[in-house]
């Protein structure tokens, strides 16, 4: 008997958090399900993260999908593919949700986060569209407690229609260690305090705040590395030159495996205007790193007691500067916070729990169908 076929519809399957998270879930589920992936923008960059032993088909999005006619275009495509379940991701796939429902399919929608255009305030039209559409599908998955609150309070979803499945991390693979050769290859000595960010260089990450805070902190013998790429890279490189910190900032570019870079760091930093529960934060914690980040999404809750003095108000330059200085000046504190973060990730955010909950949800949806 063939395994149930799941159709995943993404606005983009580039190397972002939700995409890489889905790839890891597909890998962990093995051959329990068959998978098709559709990227509306055609970007399939995250496909490299899927195990080659797992058979996944990549389907083109309907080329004639335009405003007002897009739901009908998706309906026709879904009817042709005849999946057992349709899984959609974030606002950019909302028209695919409509089309799948028109096709009579069981739909699980995933709300993983917001872009820069909704970093401060959600758009009213999108709230009401979600209210109308998401109440008609099997379930909406929130990847953070903060997103679950938004789904219930603003999208009007009942407890039966919204479910929390926390992002999980592979705590066996991501574990404390030290990549000294990697540091040396980048010209970073063991005496240098290396701060680092891993993720997309996108507007909602507010990386200009991180750059300015690093410059203003004036920490002797310190460097900052940004691992990732995106539309903001050129403007950030210009800002580094403007701030006269080019000698202390490293742009590593896009990498498929963040682990070697995490093991080079002394402190993981994140300055986002909006997040929910980012993979990179959990991976840094699992590697036993202390964290300085903004108070967005589940960051404070995730770090627990280790959040004190490490979680700063979004956009607050002075707070960010003080947090960087405090972390740089106390190696014992870095060690103790890193150990606490490792314990939290292994106890509450292990990947096995996340995969088990997704598998149970998929089977429940199949039974419902």
General description of the model:
- The protein is of the alpha/beta class and 369 residues long.
- It has 2 domains: 5-168 and 350-368, Rossmann fold (3-Layer(aba) Sandwich); 180-348, Rossmann fold.
- The chain is built from 14 helices and 13 strands.
- The chain has helices at 17-29, 70-81, 94-102, 124-134, 145-153, 180-185, 207-217, 233-242, 259-262, 279-286, 299-303, 317-328, 331-348, 351-368, and strands at residues 5-10, 34-39, 56-60, 85-89, 107-111, 139-142, 162-164, 193-198, 222-227, 249-253, 267-270, 291-294, 311-312.
- The strands form 2 sheets. Strands 3-2-1-4-5-6-7 form a 7-stranded parallel sheet, sandwiched between helices. Strands 10-9-8-11-12-13 form a 6-stranded parallel sheet, sandwiched between helices.
- The longest helix has 18 residues, at 331-348.
